[in-house]
Task: inverse folding
């Protein structure tokens, strides 16, 4: 858990020290994920979105799920979002990236363990740019790997330094 908190702190530090030329397009956000597949869970998470090319961003995500008292489940995603439509208040993007999922458990009998799996993400999303700062979004992602999942993410992205 300490590693996850450290990773989240590093992502936040990168967001705030990014240079001014990209600051208007960088975003930070929060999301609720509804996962269906090898595990059916609801999770909450945070994401960043950093412009790297004119129509492309890198989007790290950290999502925590709530499967039960003795189980810990989280995933870390590193996606590349390509914006192929950006008109008026609507932005459509396709995404591809890597998924890292970790499950750990500890039951009443003293049995504990963990599994860590990697996978590939493919999906699409839409942002509704309602103003200079706030953009509600929806994202549909399919993770291909040991844990095959369809995930619907809903949330808000907030522009930084804009």
Result:
């Amino acid at each position: 858990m300490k590693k996850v908190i450290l990773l989240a702190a590093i992502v936040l530090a990168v967001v705030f020290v990014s240079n001014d030329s990209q600051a208007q397009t960088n975003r930070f956000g929060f999301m609720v994920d509804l996962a269906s597949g090898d595990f059916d869970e609801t999770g909450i998470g945070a994401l960043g979105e950093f412009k790297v090319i004119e129509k492309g961003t890198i989007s790290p995500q950290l999502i925590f799920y709530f499967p039960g008292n003795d189980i810990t489940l989280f995933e870390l995603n590193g996606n590349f979002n390509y914006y192929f439509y950006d008109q008026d208040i609507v932005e459509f993007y396709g995404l591809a990236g890597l998924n890292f999922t970790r499950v750990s458990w500890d039951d009443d009998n003293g049995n504990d363990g963990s599994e860590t799996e990697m996978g590939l993400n493919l999906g699409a999303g839409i942002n509704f740019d309602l103003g200079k700062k706030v953009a509600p979004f929806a994202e549909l992602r399919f993770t291909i790997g040991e844990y095959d999942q369809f995930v619907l993410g809903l949330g808000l992205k907030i522009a930084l330094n804009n």
